[in-house]
């Protein structure tokens, strides 16, 4: 059997470890052959394929990014898009099945293609940790580590100048990165999409910190919106899956806080720093296990399924379960963090 692997959507630390896990187990246990689709679904629709063998995955688990490249290509769009063309590309290259490593957009497309008869197994990937049907996704732990270190650093410069620091982190429409990095770094308020707040409440937290002689550190998720806003701030248009590109809420909040409290305020956007560089040890292990489980799922012909973490076990779920709705931060997780705000 020959299996094509693709990495699609925003990249994520641990992608290479999944590829390595799948190829090594596929080679040793199942005697499978592999090919890599370049730049996600774009490589599938265009037939842009690279050889992938056990030598090409040597030492990969610690390497950031993805050796296959990634893109936010929608496989149903463009002149070569759609299941018939994809099946033709697979047949021409002797590829029997696909392992698709991706987030919500990628897996939704994978589900539609599986419904049309393409043999696909999914692997969940996202720093946002927003995919349902898996407890954690690889990349999230690394992103939280990077954000936590950045917040720690911003705190010392904030204290030197008695400033308020507003730190914007990624996460799209869920607040997991903000919640975990904010708790780890002892932020004075954590603003997440699931919990809109008023500017008055935010300023109250900021002033109470200042009144204790401390420099306020506010962590805001890119998808957060004030209670006066209809939706998350977005001024960058839409991505290939017609979802708004988020970012900019930190720059919006800092001057509002300064104007209302008189405390000099600065915004820092961590941006793609959170996705770059080497994966954490946790993410390397999780990603390797998911890659190995994905190859087993292929040989068990579990088309339309996704490998997933439940507790400490790697299990199989349907892609439909994972893409049915976002995994948001539960009220109780927010409440326990909010006890320490201000
Ligand atoms: O989904 C991962 C993510 O990093 C989000 O947190 C963020 O909103 C988005 O991707 C950024 O996308 P791009 O890399 O296309 O700018």
TrEMBL record:
Organism: Leifsonia tongyongensis
The protein's Enzyme Commission number: 2.7.1.11
An annotated Gene Ontology molecular function: diphosphate-fructose-6-phosphate 1-phosphotransferase activity
Active site location: 128 (proton acceptor)
Matching Gene3D superfamilies: 3.40.50.450, Phosphofructokinase domain
Task of the protein: Catalyzes the phosphorylation of D-fructose 6-phosphate to fructose 1,6-bisphosphate by ATP, the first committing step of glycolysis.
Chain ranges passing through the membrane: none
Name of the gene encoding the protein in the UniProt record: pfkA
UniProt: ATP binding residues: 10, 72-73, 103-106
Subcellular location(s) of the protein: Cytoplasm
Binding site for Mg(2+): 104
Residue numbers binding substrate: 126-128, 163, 170-172, 222, 266, 272-275
Domain Phosphofructokinase, first and last residues per copy: 2-298
Entry keywords, A to Z: ATP-binding, Cytoplasm, Glycolysis, Kinase, Magnesium, Metal-binding, Nucleotide-binding, Transferase
Family: Belongs to the phosphofructokinase type A (PFKA) family. Mixed-substrate PFK group III subfamily.
PROSITE patterns (alphabetical): PHOSPHOFRUCTOKINASE
BP term (GO), one: canonical glycolysis
Protein's name in the database: ATP-dependent 6-phosphofructokinase
């Amino acid at each position: 059997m020959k299996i094509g692997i693709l990495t699609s959507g925003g990249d994520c630390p641990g992608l290479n470890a999944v590829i390595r896990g799948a190829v090594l187990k596929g080679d040793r246990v199942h005697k499978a052959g592999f090919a890599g689709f370049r730049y996600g679904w774009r490589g599938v629709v265009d037939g842009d394929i690279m050889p992938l063998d056990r030598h090409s995955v040597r030492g990969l688990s610690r390497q950031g990014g993805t050796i296959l490249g990634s893109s936010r290509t929608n496989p149903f769009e463009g002149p070569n898009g759609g299941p018939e063309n994809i099946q033709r590309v697979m047949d021409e290259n002797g590829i029997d099945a696909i392992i698709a490593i991706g987030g919500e957009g990628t897996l939704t497309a994978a589900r539609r293609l599986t419904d049309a008869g393409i043999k696909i197994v999914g692997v969940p990937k996202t720093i946002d940790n927003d995919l349902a049907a898996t407890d954690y996704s690889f990349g999230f732990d690394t992103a939280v580590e990077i954000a936590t270190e950045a917040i720690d650093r911003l705190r010392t410069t904030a204290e030197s100048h008695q400033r308020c620091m507003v730190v914007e982190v990624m996460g799209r429409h869920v607040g997991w990165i903000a919640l975990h990095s904010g708790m780890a770094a002892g932020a004075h308020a954590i603003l997440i999409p699931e919990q809109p707040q008023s500017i008055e409440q935010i300023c109250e937290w900021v002033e109470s910190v200042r009144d204790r002689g401390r420099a306020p550190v506010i962590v805001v998720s890119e998808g957060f919106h004030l209670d006066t806003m209809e939706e998350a701030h977005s001024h960058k248009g839409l991505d290939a899956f017609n979802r708004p590109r988020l970012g900019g809420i930190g720059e919006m909040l800092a001057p509002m806080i300064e104007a209302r409290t008189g405390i000099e305020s600065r915004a820092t956007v961590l941006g793609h720093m959170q996705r770059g560089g080497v994966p954490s040890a946790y993410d390397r292990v999780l990603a390797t296990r998911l890659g190995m489980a994905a190859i087993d799922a292929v040989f068990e012909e579990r088309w339309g399924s996704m490998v997933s973490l439940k507790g400490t076990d790697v299990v199989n779920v349907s892609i439909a379960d994972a893409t049915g709705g976002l995994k948001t931060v539960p009220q109780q997780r927010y409440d326990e963090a909010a006890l320490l705000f201000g």
